[in-house]
Amino acid sequence: MSRASGSIAQNKHAAPAVETACHARVPVRLKSKRLDRASGSLKASHQTEPMDEQQKHSETTRPATPASQPSTSGGPAHSSGYAPGAVKRHRGRNIALIVAALVILGVVLWRWHPWGGPGGGASGAAGASGASGGGRGGRGAMANLAQPVHVATATQGEMPVVLTALGTVTPLANVTVLPQLSGTLQDVFFKEGQMVKKGDVLAQIDPRPYQISLENAQGTLARDQALLQTARLDLKRYQTLLAQDSIASQQVDTQASLVRQYEGTVKSDQANIDTYKLDLIYARITAPVSGRVGLRQVDPGNYVTPSLTNGLVVITQLQPISVIFTTSEDNLQQIIQQTQTGAKLSVTAYDRSNTTSLEGGTLETLDNQIDTTTGTVKLRAIFQNPNNLLFPNQFVNTRLLVDTIKDAVIVPTTAVLNGSMGQFVYVVKPDNTVTVRPVKVGPVDGERTSIKSGVQVGERVVIDGSDRLKEGARITIPADKPRGASGARGAHGASGAAAASGASGTRGHHRKHATQDSQ
């Protein structure tokens, strides 16, 4: 410190001399620059010395920090408890433990799950090998397993040839009841929706005007009959006098014409009487057909006329009733062949869903021409309809039985499949393997299908589970499995669960060591 202060003092005394010497010579200027640099370094050393002494004093008074406690002052890395190399080694060890745990976990999953290696990994852990040995191997093991299917045996029997078509229930009679004369509607004797028979009285029109007209016509008839009787007597007298040559023949002829005139008048009067009697009959409105009456269109008290638009009521015949349906012109020949022999073809009507049979009937007739726009022909079937299950204008599905094939080979419809080769079935061999057999299908009746060629009676065909089959695939039929199979499946499941629990224990052990190492 004394040396530094001495040098500073010397610099202070030398400064004026330097300034005076600068004007003299250039070397003196260089010397002054060197002196300025020396004075700056002395000042800097003079300021740093007190700071070094203060820092040393603070270090002596501060308590010692444990080596294991990390530094929080943000100073250099060597001020903390760890050296830079130790920190790097610690982080590398943690990363290595995590990678090892992931590798072990991947190996366990690869050994235990079905997507593991072929054979289930016989060299792996005991639990994983047990699980894979229990029937949960790789793709090759799954491909060689027998597929469970359901089978049915081809039988021999009668197969009906049925034509299905859409039809509409059409009543044989649908009558709108109209009054045949004008008058006031006095009474209505039916209830809406009532079943009536032919001839039942439905309504009554006021008959009094027609009764009066009838009596008037009867009086006119009586008068004209009396005049006719008188004319006939006069004619008889004139004929007697003409025979005696007492009168002229012209008078006799005139009287004969008068008699014929009265006879015509009497006939006209009689016709008028019959007309008024008929009007009295028409005043009582009766049911023209048997059937169900609809809703009433006119109430009592209204004046009705024969030109009434909607009539009094509509009667629809329900028993019997018909169904009109269409079929393709291609089926016309076999239908005509059966009807020409006098056979009555059976027709069954089904509901809209084509599952419930409503009524059975017979084919009545077919239309006399083919519809050129659709290529179909209309047919009418008659149903007795005792339970009124068929309702007018109802939509139904009809099944016309045209013929019956004897001794046909029949299989379930689900056994017949469609592919690039056409229609085929899977036939089960005696060694419980399947083979693909192309077939030619005949008539189909719902869940039954007749086979013209390709399957023999007694052969077994697959009806369910054919989506995973191919040529030569092995199958197993659930009904043929022994009862101990379920126990074996339970044992394999238990071994797989034990292997899974062992693998999870291994993963937990490694995770515990990794945690301890990180701490």
From TrEMBL:
Keywords: Cell inner membrane, Cell membrane, Membrane, Transmembrane, Transmembrane helix. One of its GO terms (molecular function) is efflux transmembrane transporter activity. Residues 130-139 have a biased composition (Gly residues). Pfam families: Beta-barrel_RND, BSH_RND, HH_MFP_RND, YknX_C. The keyword Zinc does not apply. Residues 1-10, 61-74 have a biased composition (Polar residues). Residues 409-476 form the YknX-like C-terminal permuted SH3-like domain. The chain crosses the membrane at residues 95-113. The keyword RNA-binding does not apply. Residues 1-85, 119-139, 474-519 are annotated as: Disordered. This is Multidrug efflux system membrane fusion protein. Residues 320-404 form the Multidrug resistance protein MdtA-like beta-barrel domain. Belongs to the membrane fusion protein (MFP) (TC 8.A.1) family. Residues 484-506 have a biased composition (Low complexity). GO terms for cellular component: efflux pump complex. Residues 214-283 form the Multidrug resistance protein MdtA-like alpha-helical hairpin domain. InterPro entries: MdtA-like_b-barrel, MdtA-like_BSH, MdtA-like_HH, RND_pump_MFP, YknX-like_C. The lineage of its organism: Bacteria, Pseudomonadati, Pseudomonadota, Betaproteobacteria, Burkholderiales. Gene3D superfamilies: 2.40.30.170, 2.40.420.20, 2.40.50.100, Helix hairpin bin (1.10.287.470). Its main location: membrane. It is found in: Cell membrane. Residues 174-316 form the Multidrug resistance protein MdtA-like barrel-sandwich hybrid domain.
